[in-house]
């Protein structure tokens, strides 16, 4: 014994004391589904691309978008942003401006000329896409990435569908649209201007292995309005299409738009730009029941578009309309009141919804049509094997975003179906798509510890002066510059997915969280973790669960 | 177009670290190679605020002193759970003597270093509220009045937890402890007793006095670093919730410390030469009920009409702190985090 007086043992470290044995619950890192991703009809991994954008990784962010959506610059302008409606940050201050960041990334890609390479080997299969709208273009892009030959046919001279012939240029400049469509075509997608009238014959003649139909809903719905000989009535689809073609019709100075959807707003705002001093939207219900999105209604009102709620057009005469006031009954349905007023109007534009022209499916066996749209399975295949359909011509909400989502989904279903045929499993496509993996749990607001997020208000996108807006078709909403886009991206709270803020590593009283380094996240040292749960309680984004130990 | 400067981050200065921050903006606790002054295997209860506060403070001190530092520990939980012979969790030079004499031992260590010409080695004395505001108070006051070159850190969990939750001079009014049970006409600890150690330290007009909580990591690290800018006696008072003694869930330790600050019950400030120079503003004001309800030591207040009156009285205490230290910012919320100077606040003796 050569130890000092009264010392009998060597000094030891407390590491010998494995306090992990005290634990009744253990922290487990989880990855939950952020509400923005959950809400996106195109299935974008929004949180992941915001994460890339936060530190200036714009190209990585853009490539993440492109995995799901080949038209970010378009969507950054025309999408109705279900992601922002779902965003948890809205409960804290204001939703993250996801859409404006997407637009910035899309514009950046056009500016820098980024492209997506086709790396898959050629499959030898040839797929026909009918309709060059968002859904058809999305499908063509995804099919091409999977190695298939793709031909798109559309009756219009230029691809784009409603993005070109429906959405006015002040919302979507054609240079942006052209840039993004050309990027898809340059991947080896063939575009042909040709009206497909008989899908079965076309497939047989062209040697196509499968077809994706996305002809959209191009026909304006008509309503019977008793009208004098001189009353001028046209439908909104025709108006917007003619304006896009550069041959706008003469509307006169006073224009009434009949309907309450987004197309009605587009028509009214277009009428203002075509010289109408008075554009009035006549809608038979109230604003809260209006199908048009709030942004569109607000922007229309800013531009001087007037709204007449609870009104129907009873009769159209020369230069004047007879308007009947309505009231909502107990079920919310508008009922006539018998009270009439006059509204001066030179033209009536009908914006009462659109219908799909389905004659190309005449005689095709197995097809089911209900409510004017084609019925499809969960894999978007129609009742006829090998023929898939999506976008506005199937039962769904009719937006560009939904169309892009359908295109992606159909492309993967077609790929799976073609693979199944090649492997000799027969042509029956039902169940060809493997069941989607169970969706992870949603990252609810209640899981977040919002204390750790700085208070940062949303960045407002600068808008053109309203006075200038009504005289030009220049784009109304302008984009963010880089500093504001980064600011906006950094407002993301990364709901339900670790973003390496080091909180768990810092707050553990037992030093039982191991930091693995950038991108590698953390590990719980179960030898010493006592299971107190502070890491889970203080995780800003709710990415830690406390799970009972099995004893 | 209007340009907004990038000044907020996804997770700004409130989290421990953030990949978007440059290295010099990150906390000491976010570093992979932090000292871990108090290592794994210590025997503190689940969710111990004191173990956390001690590691925060000492790791920051190790960084601030370039690892040239000795810590002197008084008896108490911190000593008992960290150093059961022959094991120790301390990964720093560390010495323990008695319950009541840690400030005097620290003075002696500083004197010895001075005699040896090693003034580059800094001295920290530390203890719980019992060893600081009660048993060691004479030694502490002496250390202050001699202006010995020691930073003394009190980890305040508001009672003698190690021996079974007996009342101390830092136990707040109405709190139930083993010696102030929740019975009789005035359940829990009495109003009008106890002492406010930070204000007493300020009355000594020593170079630096500050308060902090385990919920404000960056603030705590800043104050340790700032204290090391001074020579002479310095005092740091850190609120560290105790799940055992306060009857709170182990997972709520930081949440409770945050509420103590956000209700105004525990004012967070710093003072130089006896004058308050800055306060941490309340960012999300909360009523005292939010703080009290999480702790069974206050459970009796929610069962009787008298309890409601007591809660109102505690709320008045919090409101008085807010007014006295200027804890609420008249500016709109959303300003970037930081400490604001509020000029002078009165520093008289407080009896709550």
Which key features would you list for this structure?
heterodimer, A: 551 residues, alpha/beta, Alpha-Beta Plaits, Fumarate Reductase Iron-sulfur Protein, Chain B, domain 2, FAD/NAD(P)-binding domain, 5-stranded parallel β-sheet, 18 helices, 29% helix, 17% strand, globular, B: 352 residues, Rossmann fold, 8-stranded mixed β-sheet, 11 helices, disordered C terminus
**Judging from the principal axes of the Cα atoms, what is the shape of chain B?**
globular
- How many domains of chain A? 4
- Per CATH, the class of the largest domain in chain A reads Alpha Beta
Beta-strand proportion of chain A = 15-25%
Shape of chain A: globular
Give the distance, in angstroms, between the N- and C-terminal Cα atoms of chain B.
54 Å
CATH architecture of the largest domain in chain A: 3-Layer(bba) Sandwich
**Largest interface (CB < 8 Å):** A-B, 64 and 61 residues
Alpha-carbon Rg of chain B, integer: 20 Å
Low-pLDDT runs of 5+ residues of chain A are: 426-434
Largest sheet of chain A: 5 strands, parallel
What do the pLDDT scores of chain A average to?
90
Q: Structural class from helices and strands of chain A?
A: alpha/beta
**Multimerization status:** heterodimer
Largest beta sheet of chain B: what is the strand line-up? 3-1-4-5-7-6-8-9
CATH fold-type name of the largest domain in chain A: FAD/NAD(P)-binding domain
Nutshell version of this structure?
The complex is a heterodimer of chains A (551) and B (352). Chain A is α/β, with parallel strands linked by helices and 551 residues long. In chain A, helix 2 runs antiparallel to helix 3.
């Amino acid at each position: 014994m050569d130890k000092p007086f009264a010392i009998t043992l060597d000094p030891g470290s407390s590491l010998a004391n494995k306090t992990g044995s005290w634990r009744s619950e253990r922290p487990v890192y989880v990855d939950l589904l952020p509400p923005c991703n959950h809400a996106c009809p195109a299935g974008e991994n929004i949180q992941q691309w915001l994460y890339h954008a936060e530190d200036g990784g714009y190209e990585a962010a853009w490539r993440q978008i492109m995995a799901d959506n080949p038209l970010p610059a378009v969507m950054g302008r025309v999408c109705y942003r279900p992601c922002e409606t779902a965003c948890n940050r809205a409960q804290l201050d204001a939703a993250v401006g996801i859409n404006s960041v997407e637009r910035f990334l899309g514009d950046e890609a056009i500016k820098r000329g980024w492209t997506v390479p086709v790396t898959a080997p050629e499959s030898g299969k040839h797929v026909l896409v009918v309709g060059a709208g968002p859904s058809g273009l999305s499908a063509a892009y995804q099919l091409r990435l999977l190695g298939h030959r793709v031909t798109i046919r559309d009756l219009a001279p230029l691809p784009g569908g409603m993005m070109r012939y429906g959405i006015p240029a002040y919302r979507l400049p054609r240079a942006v649209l052209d840039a993004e469509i050309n990027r898809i075509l340059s991947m080896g997608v063939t575009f042909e201007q040709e009206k497909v009238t008989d899908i079965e014959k076309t497939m047989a003649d062209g040697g196509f292995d499968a077809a994706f139909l996305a002809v959209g809903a191009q026909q304006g719905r008509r309503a019977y309005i008793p009208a004098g000989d001189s009353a001028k009535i046209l439908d909104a689809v025709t108006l917007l299409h003619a304006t896009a073609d550069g041959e706008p019709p003469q509307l006169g100075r006073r224009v009434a738009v009949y309907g309450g959807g987004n197309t009605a707003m587009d028509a009214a705002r277009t009428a203002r730009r075509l010289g109408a001093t008075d554009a009035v939207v006549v809608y038979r219900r109230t604003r809260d029941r209006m199908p048009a999105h709030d942004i569109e209604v607000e922007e229309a009102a800013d531009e001087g578009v007037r709204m007449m709620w609870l009104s129907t057009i009873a009769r159209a005469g020369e230069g004047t309309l007879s308007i009947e006031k309505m009231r909502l009954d107990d079920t919310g349905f508008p009922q006539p009141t018998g009270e009439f007023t006059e509204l001066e109007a030179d033209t009536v534009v009908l914006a009462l919804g659109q219908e799909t022209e389905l004659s190309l499916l005449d005689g095709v066996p197995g097809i089911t049509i209900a409510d004017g749209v084609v019925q499809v399975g969960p894999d978007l295949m129609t009742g006829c094997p090998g023929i898939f359909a999506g976008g506005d011509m199937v039962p769904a909400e009719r937006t560009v975003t939904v169309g892009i989502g359908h295109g992606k989904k159909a492309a993967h279903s077609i790929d799976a179906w073609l693979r199944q045929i090649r492997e000799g499993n027969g042509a029956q496509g039902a169940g060809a798509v493997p069941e989607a993996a169970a969706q992870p749990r949603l990252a609810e607001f209640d899981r977040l510890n919002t204390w750790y997020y700085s208070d940062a208000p949303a960045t407002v996108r600068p808008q053109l002066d309203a006075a200038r807006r009504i005289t030009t078709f220049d784009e109304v909403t302008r984009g963010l510059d880089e500093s504001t886009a980064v600011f906006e991206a950094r407002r993301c709270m990364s709901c339900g997915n670790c973003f390496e803020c080091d909180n768990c590593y810092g707050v553990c009283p037992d030093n039982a969280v191991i930091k693995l380094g950038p991108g590698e996240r953390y590990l719980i040292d179960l030898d010493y973790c006592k299971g107190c749960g502070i890491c889970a309680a203080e995780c800003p984004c709710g990415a830690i669960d406390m799970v009972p130990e099995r004893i | 177009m209007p340009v907004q400067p990038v000044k907020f981050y996804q997770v700004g200065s409130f989290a421990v670290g953030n990949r978007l921050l440059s290295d010099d903006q990150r906390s000491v606790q976010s570093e992979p190679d932090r000292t871990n002054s108090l290592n794994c295997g210590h025997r503190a209860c689940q969710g111990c605020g004191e173990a956390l506060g001690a590691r925060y403070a000492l790791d920051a001190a190790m960084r601030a002193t370039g690892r040239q530092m000795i810590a002197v520990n008084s008896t108490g939980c911190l000593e008992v759970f960290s150093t059961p012979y022959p094991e120790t969790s301390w990964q720093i030079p560390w010495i323990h003597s008695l319950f009541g004499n840690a400030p005097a031992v620290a003075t002696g260590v500083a004197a010895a270093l001075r005699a040896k010409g090693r003034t580059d080695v800094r001295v920290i004395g530390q203890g719980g509220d019992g060893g600081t505001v009660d048993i060691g108070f004479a030694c502490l006051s002496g250390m202050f009045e001699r202006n010995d070159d020691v930073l003394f850190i009190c980890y305040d969990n508001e009672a003698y937890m190690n021996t079974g939750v007996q009342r101390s001079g830092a136990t707040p009014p109405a709190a139930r402890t083993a010696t102030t049970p929740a019975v009789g006409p005035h359940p829990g600890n009495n109003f009008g007793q106890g002492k406010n150690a930070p204000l007493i330290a300020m009355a000594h007009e020593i170079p630096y006095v500050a308060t902090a909580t385990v919920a404000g990591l960056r603030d705590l690290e800043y104050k340790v670093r700032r204290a090391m800018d001074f020579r002479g006696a310095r005092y740091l008072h850190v609120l560290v919730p105790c799940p055992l003694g306060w009857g709170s869930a182990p997972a709520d330790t930081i949440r409770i410390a945050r509420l103590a600050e956000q209700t105004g019950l525990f004012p967070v400030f710093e003072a130089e030469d006896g004058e308050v120079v800055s306060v941490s503003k309340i960012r999300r004001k909360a009523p005292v009920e939010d703080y009290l309800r999480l702790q069974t030591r206050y459970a009796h207040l929610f069962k009787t009409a008298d309890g409601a009156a007591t809660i109102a009285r505690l709320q008045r205490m919090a409101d008085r702190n807010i007014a006295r230290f200027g804890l609420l910012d008249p500016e709109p919320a959303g300003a970037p985090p930081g400490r604001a100077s509020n000029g002078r606040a009165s520093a008289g003796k407080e009896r709550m």
